[in-house]
Specification:
The structure is a homodimer. Chain A is mainly α. Chain A is about 70% helix and about 5% strand. Chain A has helices at about 5-20, 25-35, 45-50, 55-70, 90-125, 130-155, and strands at about 45, 70-75, 85. Chain A has a three-stranded antiparallel beta sheet with strand order 1-3-2. The interface of A and B includes residues 15 and 141 of A. Chain A binds a DNA duplex through helix 4.
DNA sequence: CAGATTGTTCATAAAATAATGAACAGCCAG
DNA sequence: CTGGCTGTTCATTATTTTATGAACAATCTG
């Protein structure tokens, strides 16, 4: 296992670094997934640190995040005490993990907040109450739509 | 037009600040949209600065971003030299603007990068070539799927 | 045209986010 | 139990991102 990224590996890692950025995840998370994604063998923390030249802390933290939504799988390697990992390669699983862990909670707290807003609005008595009420209802509709889109998006990834 | 945020306004702004965060947009962009969203009247830069207590630079910059994907509309107010704005309230328009301006370009450059990777792979002659080839193909499939999902997501917002 | 008024830009400051690495906790092997 | 690995945590440092505000350009107004 050579400890430098080949040109090809660098490109692949770069793809995932950009994806990570789009998802508001740390750069290192994208790097880690990228390296695992094109590695035929499972890798341990030490391998990843050496390949990417990042610290042990970042590596551990990054893997924790990846595991949190199932983007990475642990693999047992006989005769080695260390933990090894591979990239989860089924898009559907990653998407649904991500949705459940990183997106749904936000939607839920948004739901709660809108409920609070509705009750604030009742106490309110400005001349614009009607307009504001319409806006809040609209916002609620958006929320609902977003919630409906998520499971659909997961299914959309079905065959992969 | 009072120059402080009511409790209700604060809550609404907060909702959009969180959404902005999820979309990797500056906090101020969420604040601006939020205030416009619950404002019955069009607002000018000065109004927004005062309401949100943010600088003129942030306000101008934030509105520029919002305009870039059609989240905000310019309104002419008779007898006033200043520019006035309202929040675009049709979700479908905002989504499709956002997709076209902020998402599609990333997908496209990703496409280009994958093409480059494919050519790098041809020069490559490791024993793992086959495995890597499979992964790159898979990645390409993901890319394609993402591209297909976007127009669908836009349509999903249809009635709003 | 001269003087205001309005909006944009951009160098700098401030704030938020991520990475580092040393300290620590757990665990196995002898 | 002791010593050596392995992985995690977290206070600090580094980096990146965002906000600020003064300088500027553009546009009206009288």
């Amino acid at each position: 296992m050579q400890s430098a990224l080949s040109e090809l590996e660098k490109e692949v890692v770069d793809v995932f670094v950009r994806i990570a950025g789009a998802l508001s995840l740390p750069r290192s998370v994208g790097e880690l997934y990228g390296v695992l994604f094109i590695s035929p063998q499972p890798m341990c923390i030490d391998d990843l640190m050496r390949k990417l030249k990042i610290s042990k802390g970042s590596t551990s933290q990054g893997l924790k995040i990846l595991r949190s939504f199932g983007a990475v799988n642990s693999v047992y390697v006989a005769g080695d005490r260390r933990d090894f990992f591979t990239a989860e390669a089924e898009l559907r699983r990653i998407v649904s993990g991500f949705v459940n862990e990183q997106v749904r909670p936000h939607l839920d707290s948004g739901q709660a907040r809108i409920a609070r807003i509705t009750s604030l609005l009742e106490e309110d008595s400005s001349e614009n109450k009607e307009f504001i009420a319409e806006r809040i209802e609209r916002l609620q509709g958006w929320q609902k739509r977003a919630g409906a889109l998520l499971p659909f998006a997961s299914n959309f990834m079905k065959p992969d």
